Queue: 3 jobs
Job 1
Amino acid sequence: MSSASFDELIASKSIVVLAGTGGVGKTTTSAVVALHAARAGRKVALVTIDPAKRLADALGLDELSNEPSRIDLTPDDQTTDKAKTTGELWALMLDTKSTFDALIHRYSADPAQADRILSNDFYSNISNALSGTQEYMAMEKLYELAEDGDYDLVIVDTPPSRNALAFLDSPNMLARLLDHWLYKALMTPTRKLLKASNLLLKQLSKVVGGDVVEDIVAFFQAFEGMEDGFKERSQRVMELLASDACAFVLVASARRDTTIEAAYLARQLADNDLDVAAVVMNRLQPDFVRLKRRPRAPEFEPFLQAHDELHALADREETHIESLLSQVASDPVVVRVPLLATDVHDLDGMAELQAKMFQT
Ligand SMILES: Nc1ncnc2c1ncn2[C@@H]1O[C@H](COP(=O)(O)OP(=O)(O)O)[C@@H](O)[C@H]1O
Ligand SMILES: [Mg+2]
């Protein structure tokens, strides 16, 4: 399929989630897709996770923030058509902790309960360190922005998690946390359970110290009555991800190791009944002429060698792309993006990539 259908795909969705392993160009691709949609006239929110410093600077994202701020799309050359867009691009750099805090506030019965949780030392530790927290909060932010209805399109760059499962499982993270045996033991203390948990807590105290255990117990106790709210919300996030409004875009580079990771991610999506709508193959060898007749003069030798090596590399890339696509169960739009001469760190670089990605 062509890049024209990538344009159509993005135009038909209100949520786009980009997945892929770190370093393949996921954050850059998210920004370019967002820019493209905004220039097409839509109001777009981009949730970024870890933009390269210079890209963040170019987007005016100099710090973590929980609310989107508007990015000026006016090109330096005001005479172009692009200056006339009615679209808007809003972006934020995910602040995991504040997003988590907001969630606690939302589901607490009263401000006192929220305070008990937020001021708990154990909470401060887990809200950043618990595996899957960043993934969960990215989904949480997505849900919040999609629910608000302020935007035509919400684009979410996902964290560079090594483990695709963590990302897909993340909507259930809090629900799982509250399914914890310790939580249950504390909330519904049948005699047997209470005895067992007291014994275990004593053992635990010896290892990590009584204060820590007290914090943990207080933490779980502070959650009383909140689990249903969390579970319900997790379910709604999953429903949103599975709905027609949402598309998953897999970003990969055409190397053996990254396509293996991408195929694994595609399988995880499939296992969760989620389709890969598009595969963006990024940083490919630029397409350049294949010599039919080889000049014989010896001074051409180094060029011929470079020519042969680059074409061999391009052929190998095609093998990796084919192998990846054969492992993606859905019939995704395939987008080929060449490696640009320089990093993408400003609106001009993004525009160049946009032209390649959407063939505008
Ligand atoms: N097609 C491309 N051509 C040249 N540089 C690219 C391209 N795509 C991404 N980059 C660069 O690669 C680096 C990593 O990209 P990034 O989007 O941060 O990756 P990820 O989010 O997957 O970790 C950045 O410096 C970015 O500018
Ligand atoms: Mg990134």
Job 2
Amino acid sequence: MPEDEAGDPTDPIVLGRRIRYRRKRLRITLEELARTVGMAPSALSLIENGKREPKLSTLSALAGALDMGVEQLLGSKAPSRRMELEIQVERVQRGPMYAALGLPTVRVGPGMSTETLEALAALQQQLGQRLEEQAATPEEARRANTQLRARMQGVNNYFERIETMAAELLTAIQHTGGPLSEHHISRLVEHVGFEIHQVPDLPHSTRSVTDLRNRRFYLPSSAGAGSPWSVLLQAVGHHLLEHRRPANYGEFLEQRVETNYFAAALMIPETSAVDLLARAKSQRELSVDDLRDAFAVSHETAAHRMTNLMTHHFDIPTHFEKVHSSGIIHKAWQNDGLQFPTDHSGAVEGQRACRFFSARQAFSGTNRLLSHFQYTDTPHGTFWCSARVEGSEHGEFSISFGVPYEHVKWFRGRATSYRRTSTCPDPACCQQPSPALAEQWDGQAWPSARPATHMLAAMPAGAFPGVDETEVFRFLQRHAPTVELDGDLA
Ligand SMILES: [Zn+2]
């Protein structure tokens, strides 16, 4: 294990081991140390096992009783090979890999021989490596996704800079509230000094192409599925947010999140949306449906916008999921403690959502015209959710938005009696067939898997993942105002 990983001084597992190690060296019992610092032995035991973080006052009392400084106690290195092994095995047991595989854990304590520990640690490491190699999604993509999610959580999914930029633009084009009309959008494009060109031959791998030299936005001439205007707003966003050619997949993802945000902030302006939401909250009638209808946007855009605004303006934490009818998660967000399934590396996208979550239950409803409301009891609390199924060129997706139980009083749909229990990632929740069913069919089924089609399944190389650059350059050349045809480019 790399030293910096063992060395996180705030890691409660490392701290707990250091306290126990020092206590034993001084030949003090758990009860004696607990009495000296004035706490229950059970509480001290939780700290030593890394299951609770001590308060700073407790920490200095412990350091004093163990005859050492606080910094010394917080020291970053495991004092012995044995302890390093204990920490490593313990940490992996508590990590996403064990949870995802449903592996049983063992008590890592003095009763376990160093030989057993060495073997366990080596097995864990090999298993992690093998899973890494066979995983369908490239490591870089998953890591970038996980890092981006952490950054979004840090700001409660509220990007102040983009909100300000959108508000200034709306003022500049004299938009005074309500939905953004086509008229507003063309003024906006004019305002930033561009022209819109609709063409029948946009490269297959693109939704829009921007010609920076001639200041043109190229859009498909037939709308197809999805709104051409949100695609256009995203193109404007790339330009105004000064996005440069992405250097890696992480930057590509970040740019995509920012332009999505930018388009949503224009279509559902912050000031009018917060007015509407505040009024709805005072009547205990908050709903994604109303936000969607008031601004004439897709259900996904409205639900996404709820996640931007609810925590920042109303102190209500939220979660959001976009799940394909196959059960695969395409997008997920939470700052309310709802646990999504993860693979061994912690990535959510590409995992199968729990069968009992509203994101899956919404598909079984017979009335798809109305939103599905549901309470879900999980090991991390009870959550309320509203979900809706939307069709797209890639099939049907459920869009779900929800909040923890204590905040449901503000939302329409709280009266539902639909209730499910999820114990995921416990494999017995919904991933493993029941023993009776398994007995009936084990060894008698031979399914043929459909190739994975979700966005991270195979990330093509290149600066703009999935885009055929030759096709794009040829396209621009073909449409540019003054073209000097060069034989092999025509
Ligand atoms: Zn489940």
Job 3
Amino acid sequence: MHGFVQLTASDIVSLYRPTPCSLRLYLRAHGVPEAEPSAFDEIIQSLGQVHEQKHLATLGAYEDIGLVGRDQRVSRTLEAIQSCVPLIYQAEFRQKFLINGTPVIVVGRSDFLIFDGDGYIIRDSKLSRNVDENHHEEIALQLQLYGWLFERAVGVPAKGLQVHTGAGDVVDVPYDGGAAALAKLEQVLALKQSTTEPYEPVGWSKCKAGCGYSDRCWSQAEARQDVSLVMDIDQGLARQLHSDGIATPQELLSAFDIQSLSELKRPWGTRQQKVGKKAESILANAEVLVSGKERILAPVVIPAHNNYVMFDLEGMPPYMDDLEKIYLWGVQVYGRNSGKFIGATSGFGTDGDREGWYAFLEAANGIFAEHGDIPFIHWHHYERTHIEMYLKRFGDPSGVADRVLRNVLDLLPITKNSIVLPLPSYSLKVVEEYVGFTRTQDEYGGSWAMAKFILATETEDQAERNSLMAEILTYDEEDLAATWAVFEWLRNK
Ligand code: SF4
């Protein structure tokens, strides 16, 4: 529509997914190319479609607005509403109006309009399991926008706004007359119209969690030596420093000592909070980043043993009707009497989750029988928390899991407490590269492995399933080898 800026519910989602960032929307709106969706993204998208279709099948006969020509969808939606069609699928609305004097056209396409006696309920199907005031604000905003579009087009508000969640629940979203969604559209419009790129700090978990601009933003941040590259600098602090004119780690070191940095206030949620105790580690991290040289803080404390078990789990977050699940329990003894890699995998039948857990307990039991109490070395707290979770889920009649819990040793805090590294993150993948470990696989990672596992779950072809599982097992085996490489490197410090 010439002269009108088009705004959609997807624009709002771009601000939040995969992680909150306004730069993503600016870059998309300005045609900056982004990376292709990963195999994991594509699988999640198709799971979302399956979830929506399954729900549609439970709702009875429907009219599919997506089947009519693009130009007639809005008018056909209104006709269907006026005729009280019991279920309207892919209803489409368009409204033209002004935002701060700029003509805009807002387009929204809701999954389901469900006639409920004396009005319509607007419902969208989502894979997210928790949708409330603390989770997935973008979903509530999307529904608010549909609610506002409906009210403008039909003349009366919808009877209700609802989300069909990934857990299969139907959750009500209170309608605020569209106020929050319209305020968000103002932000969307400002970003679309802006001629200068907004400042956004980079962050390892923010940018490396599936954002298509990760390589672009990260390399630009490195080229300009952005202060947000310093580990332990959170997003609020990076923004505060940037607005105070402190752009680089070098400028940070010149402007602050521990005392003054700890007193600096930065945005923290809806409040302002002092940097506090983090100041010391931030400045140490900035120093090693500038010098490029690691700094030893304290002796490395690792209990002396002849052998150690490297231990790593691969899991799926809860999705659709499934609970959170560990699908691979990887262990391997390294040291004087190294052993073979054991990857205990969950089965694909209804009892698969339990089978994986008991296969792991059996493997751990065998290791204890051969080596006695032996440290189970892992990276970060995921392994400990998930053993505790499975203990509650399936029990541990032989007491092996308790014994593993008594012997787990998290290498990440040991590393952080003893050495400062000139790196943007203490993720195992980053540290292993720093110590010179190389992998045989071109593609790997937690999301990659999850995508492979979902494909293995869905295929009926046994040969394909075996080949997918073999790739995941190689990845996990190399994770253990990487943990051992970091362990050895650290021990030699
Ligand atoms: S890479 Fe990071 S900073 Fe860049 S758009 Fe994505 S989330 Fe935002």
